[in-house]
Amino acid sequence: MRALLIASPSEYQRPSRPKLIAPEETAQNPARAMRGIYARPLASYNSHCWQGGWGSAILTALVYPIIVSFGPITVYSFGVMLALAFLSAGNVLGRELARKGMDPELASSMVLWAAVGGLGGSRLLSIFDDWDAFVAQPVSFIFTGAGFVFYGGLLGGFITVSLFIRAHGLSWLRVSDSIAPGLAIGQAIGRVGCLLAGDGDWGTPTTLPWAMRYPNAIIGWESWLKANALPLDTRVHPAPIYETLGYGAVFLILWSMRRSRQPDGMILWWYLLLSATVRFLVEFVRVNPRIAFGLSQAQFVSLALIALATVLIWRSSESESVSEPARVGSTGPPAA
User: Fold this and answer.
1) Conformational region of residue 180, where left means phi above 0, alpha means psi within -120 to 50, and beta covers everything else
2) Angle (deg, nearest 10), helices 266-282 and 239-257
3) Please, which of 23, 71, 186, 330 could form a disulfide with 89 given CB 3.0 to 4.6 Å?
4) What does the alpha-carbon distance between residue 286 and residue 238 come to, in Å, rounded to a whole number?
């Protein structure tokens, strides 16, 4: 239930480039932005929604942050997708644990620990990333539904799940290989929530046929347009859709790798390599600040992960033959 009430724990945009800035008022106060958005009927946006063709109009109509409200209780579309992401990841993890001879019931506990560590790590990194805003309003900054950072969540979840694995005396590499496909499908589903919420991680302006608008965005679409002196009919890259397609492809690749023997850790290393590549490429069309060489902070982290994963894949391939007989609790039998 906690997940359903989360507005959008995706990283908001604070671009530094003069032509692509995000208003701090709407980024830091998504709830206030929503009150302004929902005070007007959706029909007020119709004059612009259909510019760009049917594809653009359909995508624009998908931006719907609030599903339903019952008095003080509000169910957010991002929260629903977050819950579905965790459930899907847990289901995939449970199946993999069972295939490898481990207890599938551990999956739900791992997902819970991953959620706690992921949300905590995301918030902690966002504090360091925007220290001035945190110092100005620490309580509201911590409990706002926006401003979470993905790589902080990845690190936080990594730490808590690692502690869980150690506490149960399991092999970290074997379990992590089981986690990797579920993590990829969870990311793919989670980014759908980002699209529905319009949480500020849209892309740069474009005239491509599938470009879209975010008139109902939780962060404040019109405020962003005004801050950048852009016309109301501006359409942008639907960056969350790109990530959903990318992470979905990563999941399919990792899932297919189960059909052959793999050294312990190999699927995890490939997850790091592929998912970091997806994020690196999508960042080129996202409105994130460039810190050096035209690259964003996320891209530098992605490059570090790509380099690390490449070395680990090479070492795993050299040190262990993939034809080695399966061990109980290890890579398990090939998937049917």
Assistant:
1) alpha
2) 160
3) 186
4) 9
Locate the domains of the chain by residue range.
3-319
pLDDT of residue 108: 86
The pLDDT confidence band at residue 134, using thresholds 50, 70 and 90, is low
Q: How many residues does the chain have?
A: 336
CB 310 within 8 A of CB 225: no
Phi, psi angle pair for 246, to nearest 5°: -65, -50
The total of other beta-carbon atoms located within 10 Å of residue 132's CB is 7
In angstroms, the CA 59 to CA 62 distance is: 5
Between the alpha carbon of residue 173 and those of residues 170, 179, 320, the distances in Å are 9, 10, 14
Radius of gyration (C-alpha) of the chain in whole angstroms: 21
| pLDDT tier at 15, thresholds 50, 70, 90 | very low
State the pTM of this model. Answer: 0.74
Structure tokens at 208: 């491509």
**Residue appearing with tokens 């009150």:** 35
Q: Among residues 226, 227, 243, 232, which one has the least CA distance to residue 190?
A: 243
- Report the C-alpha gap between 136 and 225 in whole angstroms: 25
Q: What pLDDT digit, counting tens, does each position of 184-220 carry?
A: 999 999 899 888 888 778 899 999 989 988 888 877 7
Distance (Å, whole) CA 197 – CA 187:
15
Dihedral sign (CA 325, 331, 334, 336)? positive
Cα separation, 198 vs 66, whole angstroms: 11
Question: What are the tokens at 261?
Answer: 């023997």
**Amino acid letter at 332?**
G
CB 27 within 8 A of CB 219: yes
Residue of 334 and 4 predicted with greater confidence: 334
- Return the number of other C-beta atoms located less than 10 Å from residue 328's C-beta: 8
- DSSP 8-state symbol, 45: G
SS3 51: coil
Instruction: Please give the Cα distance from 282 to 274 (Å, whole number).
Output: 12
Q: The tokens 């309580």 sit on which residue?
A: 139
Determine whether 295 is exposed, middle or buried from the number of CB atoms within 10 Å of its CB (0-12, 13-18, 19+).
Answer: middle
Instruction: Give the separation between CA 238 and CA 86, rounded to whole angstroms.
Output: 23
pLDDT mean over 131-150 = 57
